[in-house]
Amino acid sequence: MNKRLTLLGSTGSIGESTLDVVARHPDRFAVHALTAHRNGDKLVAQCLRFRPEVAVVGDADTAARVEAQLKAAGCNTQVAYGPDALVQVAQSAQCDTVVAAIVGAAGLAPTLAAARAGKRILLANKEALVMSGGIFMDAVRDHDATLLPVDSEHNAIFQCLPRDIAEHGGVTKIILTASGGPFRTREPATLVDVTPEQACKHPNWVMGRKISVDSATMMNKGLEVIEAHWLFSLPGERIEVLIHPQSVIHSLVSYADGSVLAQLGNPDMRTPIAHALAFPDRVDSGVAQLDLAQIATLQFEKPDYARFPCLALAMQALAAGGVASAALNAANEVAVDAFLERRIGFMEIGRVVQSVLDGLSNRTPSGLADVLDADADARRAAREFIAGGAHIILTTDRTGSIDR
Ligand code: NAD
Ligand code: MG
């Protein structure tokens, strides 16, 4: 069956990997819409290749530029811009599948619109689910949408669970693997000096800058624990994090009889993307077959929460419930931006998030408006904390523990 896709965030790392898989199967997939934020040139190149009906960008200037370039090249893709246009292409009757690959909270509105329109959603944008949790899952259920995880760990778990995602008879726990990022073995006392370039250099994966920093702080794994909680309706206590530096086992599911099922593969996002695109079929993703004899050794260790305070903060937010995960996510987005712009240091990311969570007056959200309020409040609190300079880490002692 031919699927018609809206690809939200097509110019990003996940967006490009998705189009790489799509291009291998023109008989299966057609593109209704592509969206980008500011990278008009890349979007134009994608439009010329995939000929979508609609292209969406972030602002009027970029839209005018993209439109002129497309016209000059004889491409009649319509160009729109802004958050409403994203929602339109996500809920359009012209598409049946929406790939949610925008980074951060900006992806929530269109992804939720896709759920409310009953689409088949391929979810990479974990922040959207971390923010809206139960509201998003209710929308999926109430509107008969289908949610397929693209995040490699969640896609692995999905593959290892019984087919019906809501039914997990005999599952005792799920185990999310984590590479540990670029600083797994670095002397903790030296982490204060980490630069954005070092943080974005992941040992196994090539990804966007925000998720690369999240991997370095392990906030990414924390967000993934929250994502797994919602996707697989398991309490936090039954979701474990396991460091596995080779990133070959993408995650595991433990069963009551002692069986542990795992999904393995080379670390390339085209595998989970192809799985979700073609599900329940299997198609070529362009990823080389795994050569275990060549890899020879797989290692595992427990995560070090002292080294990675962001992981512990995410788990606390999940346990707290209410709008704590939305506040955690918002504070982290502000802190990561500040780090990438060299306004705060690497170890200060966790301090910003901690301060926002400490100051949170938590409540149960009664709807999306409450979530968006919590997001806005947390962003404000994070910015104030950063502007006040209270985040600055003054000393590091010889044993590597940080004196706050
Ligand atoms: P990226 O930064 O490479 O790409 C982000 C995309 O979102 C781009 O197309 C960009 O134009 C668009 N975008 C950014 N800000 C926007 C805004 N305000 N409004 C509309 N569009 C906007 O990011 P990525 O690495 O591809 O990650 C995308 C999402 O997928 C993230 O949520 C990330 O956590 C998740 N994810 C990524 C990977 C990976 O390997 N890259 C793996 C698992 C999950
Ligand atoms: Mg992941």
Automatic annotation (TrEMBL):
Q: Where is the 1-deoxy-D-xylulose 5-phosphate reductoisomerase C-terminal domain?
A: 147-232
- Its pathway? Isoprenoid biosynthesis; isopentenyl diphosphate biosynthesis via DXP pathway; isopentenyl diphosphate from 1-deoxy-D-xylulose 5-phosphate: step 1/6
Binding-site residues for NADPH, renumbered to this chain: 11-14, 38-39, 125, 127, 208
Q: What class of enzyme is it?
A: oxidoreductase
Keyword list, A-Z: Isomerase, Isoprene biosynthesis, Magnesium, Manganese, Metal-binding, NADP, Oxidoreductase
For whether the record's keyword set contains Magnesium, the answer is: yes
Q: Which Gene3D superfamilies does the UniProt entry name for this protein? A: 1.10.1740.10, NAD(P)-binding Rossmann-like Domain
Q: Which segments constitute the 1-deoxy-D-xylulose 5-phosphate reductoisomerase N-terminal domain?
A: 5-133
Q: Does the keyword GTP-binding apply?
A: no
Q: Which InterPro entries match?
A: DXP_reductoisomerase, DXP_reductoisomerase_C, DXP_reductoisomerase_N, DXPR_C, DXPR_C_sf, NAD(P)-bd_dom_sf
Q: List the catalysed reactions.
A: 2-C-methyl-D-erythritol 4-phosphate + NADP(+) = 1-deoxy-D-xylulose 5-phosphate + NADPH + H(+)
| Any matching Pfam family | DXPR_C
Positions with a binding annotation for 1-deoxy-D-xylulose 5-phosphate: 126, 152-153, 179, 202, 215, 220-221, 224
In this chain the DXP reductoisomerase C-terminal domain maps to: 264-380
A GO MF term? manganese ion binding
* Family the entry assigns: Belongs to the DXR family.
Q: What does this protein do?
A: Catalyzes the NADPH-dependent rearrangement and reduction of 1-deoxy-D-xylulose-5-phosphate (DXP) to 2-C-methyl-D-erythritol 4-phosphate (MEP).
- Its protein name is 1-deoxy-D-xylulose 5-phosphate reductoisomerase
The gene designation is dxr
